[in-house]
Predict the 3D structure of the following.
Amino acid sequence: MDSFTLYGEQIRSRLLIGSALYPSPSIMTESIVASGADIVTVSLRRQQSAQAGDDFWQLIKNTGLKVLPNTAGCHSVKEAVTLAQMCREVFATDWIKLELIGDEYNLQPDPFALLEATKILLDEGFKVLPYCTDDLVLCQRLADLGCEVLMPWGAPIGTGKGLLNPYNLRMIRERLPSHTLIVDAGLGLPSHACQALELGYDAVLLNSAIAGAGCPVTMSHAFRSAVEAGRYSYLAKAMPEKDVASPSTPTMGMPFWHQN
Amino acid sequence: MKIVINGQSAVVAEQISLSEALANYGARPPFAVAVNGDFVPRSQCEIKTLNEGDSIELLSPIQGG
């Protein structure tokens, strides 16, 4: 399968996977490997006295994957900028998945704070991957600031509802044809991921859909296949939809043709 | 003097450096630090002096989505 570009880097897998919510560390590792992902998302929290955090980080390092740190849980520009700066030091990457929550109920990104934080971080040399709503004008404003990658949601985080507004997502794809677009959050089924890729999105980022499945490792395989199917479908250019049926089997030479 | 590390009160010597306070706390790498909401790069921890009531956030890698 062809690769896509993320701030100048060629990324082979079109599935970005999260590292949270798995039933066990070993299932997390197996699921990440099964996904074929090149990028895994991580975060920072207060250091605990227990050894658990150290073990987790060692497991992630052992995968050899690139890490994409996030600013999950931040509600203000100041919090998000500080956390991004801390992530850059710990994870030694300029990439930051910028999350700035505006509403606690559906964890909807705050578009105004997101723009403000994005500008600050881009000015500081970060390569910002903003988690945003599927609002075209917001995406355009983020692109205007210099974001090469945009990550509109499919649906609120952890809902598994899939692409709630395919029209909006299609419009963003059409209006920003040269930007890398990743559907982030809200996916529940491999068919949702396939749909995103069929719309021309470059990749999907998900966590709960795999970690919350009855068998995360098997679901990880399923999502891996789904993004490949969706990408191939997009490249193949689907047939035009029609309202009137037309036979696929030739009618020429049909026996008993209209005998009655 | 009193400071706060990860939400917990701690009593430390006057004029203590941030790196000393972290060592006393038992901080284990990898980590990053902020004081009163401002990031303090690793290279600055030795020379950063703490004041009464300072609040330190000591963060390490965890799972993320």
Remarks:
- Chain A touches chain B through 36 residues (CB under 8 Å).
